[in-house]
Amino acid sequence: xxxKNLMEEVAPEVLEDLWKKxxxxxxxxxxxxxxxxxxxxxxxxxxxxxRGKTFSRTDxxxxxxxxxxxxxxxxxxxxxxxNPHHE
Length: 87
Prior knowledge:
Layout: E1 4-5, H1 7-19, H2 28-40, E2 46-47, H3 50-59, H4 63-82
């Protein structure tokens, strides 16, 4: 068994979808800054078993949960795009 924050799987997936629409740096530093910022603004969704993971993942198909993740990633994208931590 493993303890896992399901948001750490969902956020990168959403980021990849949204990043396609942005003209910005795609380096690993910016990617991790975006994910860290977004994850800090989202409630964690911890699961322990594969079965629990499946049930919790289904929750993300609900519109409000998906909107929350998209909003957090979009806000983080905008901030990092305007204030990258590198040259």
